[in-house]
Each structure stands twice: as C-alpha cells, then as structure tokens.
Amino acid sequence: MTENNEKTALILLGCPQVPVQTSMALYLVHGLKEQGIRPVIAGTQAARKLMEVADPDRHYVSEMTDLDAAIDEITGKQRDFDLCFVFIHNDSGVAYAGTMAYISKARVYALLFGEHAEELAGEIEFPCEVVAAKAVHNPMPLKRKLDEVMQWAVSKR
C-alpha cells in the first residue's frame, strides 16, 4: 500500500512468448484502474517493450519497472503491494509466483495460460489463487476466468 492508502497491484510479466500475455495484462490493468487500484507492471525487457508499444500514450500503463528490481524492492522492504498477479506459462513463472507468495504481503493470483496451463497449475504448492486456462492465441478462455476472480479480488481489498 502507498502512503496515501491507495490500493496497489503488481502485475508480473515474464517472457512474452505466448501471445495472450500482453493483451490480458492490458485488460487486467484496465479492470484494476476502474476499481481504483493502482497497477504497477514489472516485467522482462521484452514484456515491457510490448506494453509500451501497445499503450504508447500510457492510457493504461502508468508505471513499469524491471521484474528483478521490483522483487529487490519488496525483499528490501522498500515497497509492497496489496495484490499481485503473476502471468505464468512456464516453470520460471511458477517460481516467480512462489517468490512473491513468500516475500510479499500481497494476495497472490497465479494466472496460468498456454498449452500446459493445467499441468503447471499442479506444480503450485504455495498459497495463492489459481486461475488457469488453455489460452495461447485466443485470450477469451483466460479473460472469462479472470473476470470471475476479479469480482471477488477487488471486493477483498
């Protein structure tokens, strides 16, 4: 939470290998902003560049940072968030979500997508809300599931 009690959400983006990640991240940012929650995107350089190109006037994306820098700030107790949404399409995404569950006070949402979303969901052994959909090119399966959790995610803030 920030000093002025504004609710915040960290959105972690890994390698943008699966096409739906960028559009779903922008969709999530839009939904959070509509609920009065300030989104911060942390991602790899490629993921951040895709977000910049997709939102050049920064209508949705107001703050972005490097993925490892965000983790360092949380670990160093310089910053934390109320919510954390981790986009996951491979094992390293699961590891990032596990790290966030351990170092942050944020309520963690693991957003699993891609060809192996269900199998990856089985690897999660830490406390978080799991949202999994086999979405690679078509974001709609993940969008539908995200819409369901967003109804209660924002109400628990």
Fold and architecture overview:
By secondary structure, this protein is α/β, with parallel strands linked by helices. It has one domain: Rossmann fold (3-Layer(aba) Sandwich), CATH 3.40.50.10160. It has 6 helices and 6 strands, in the order E-H-E-H-E-H-E-H-E-H-E-H. The protein has a 6-stranded parallel sheet, with helices on both faces. Helix 5 links the parallel strand 5 and strand 6. The model has no long low-confidence stretch (mean pLDDT 91).
Short note summarizing the structure:
The protein is of the alpha/beta class. Helices cover 42% and strands 20% of the residues.
Low-confidence stretches: none
Pairing-aware structural class of the strands and helices?
alpha/beta
Strand element count: 6
Average pLDDT metric: 91
CATH architecture: 3-Layer(aba) Sandwich
Q: Major β-sheet, in short?
A: 6 strands, parallel
The CATH top-level class label: Alpha Beta
Please tell me what the overall shape is: globular
For this structure, the CATH topology is Rossmann fold
Give the strand content.
15-25%
Helix tally equals: 6
N-to-C SSE string, H for helix and E for strand: EHEHEHEHEHEH
Give me the side-by-side strand order of the main sheet.
3-2-1-4-5-6
CATH homolog superfamily: MTH777-like
Cα(first) to Cα(last) distance is 11 Å
Helicity range: 40-55%
Q: Specify Rg, calculated over alpha carbons.
A: 14 Å
Overall number of domains: 1
Name the assembly state: single chain
Protein name: DUF1890 domain-containing protein
Pfam families: DUF1890
Organism: Methanoculleus marisnigri (strain ATCC 35101 / DSM 1498 / JR1)
